[in-house]
Amino acid sequence: MFETLLPDILVVCAGAMPHMAPLVEQNWEQFSRNWNSDVKMSLLFSQAALTTPLPAGTTVMLISSGAALGGSPLSGGYAGAKRTQMFLADYAQKESARLQLGLQFLALAPGRILPETELGKAAVEAYASSLGLSPADFIKTMGAKPTPEDVAPPTAYEPLGPSLDPYKRKSHKYISFDQLTLIHKPLKESIMLF
Questions:
Q1: Domain of 94?
Q2: DSSP characters for 26-85?
Q3: What is the pLDDT of residues 36-63, one digit of tens each?
Q4: 114 falls in which pLDDT band (50, 70, 90)?
Q5: Is residue 2 in a domain?
């Protein structure tokens, strides 16, 4: 892929639909679905960014989930897979620093279900049903929500903090919406995977 295009920003935002069911109703294939897609894709793109390597200053953003922080008991291994994406961003950032590549790896964790997406709709329906609520009533119980546009805008995001320089960054965990600032800057080339 990087033989023909060297992006300024690579957003890895794709994966499998988790099997929505209680833990006791899932087999291993259903439970591990997101490990075999979301985690694998994040690993392979991170490795490719590091070994090509992409140009210094490139940002690689792995789209994780708030489920990685709070769990998601009806979605099998989804929350664990999304947490692993956060670890991968951290490991890749450390490797970029060790190799002095100047790449920035981030994991974005939208804080709650996005009912407007296919995944969000399935999650709302599953959780509403488990609580004996209608999907509309379940959505009312959820606080303020980010929109899909908040998660994947056509501009670049960078974290707030003392240093945006990847060489000076000592650790990287995850980024949530309240830790972001929108930076409007022209992008030479971007790749967004959905």
A1: 9-111+146-193
A2: --HHHHTTTIIIIIHHHHHHHHHHHHTTPPTT-EEEEE--THHHH--TTBTTHHHHHHHH
A3: 999 999 999 999 999 999 999 999 999 9
A4: confident
A5: no
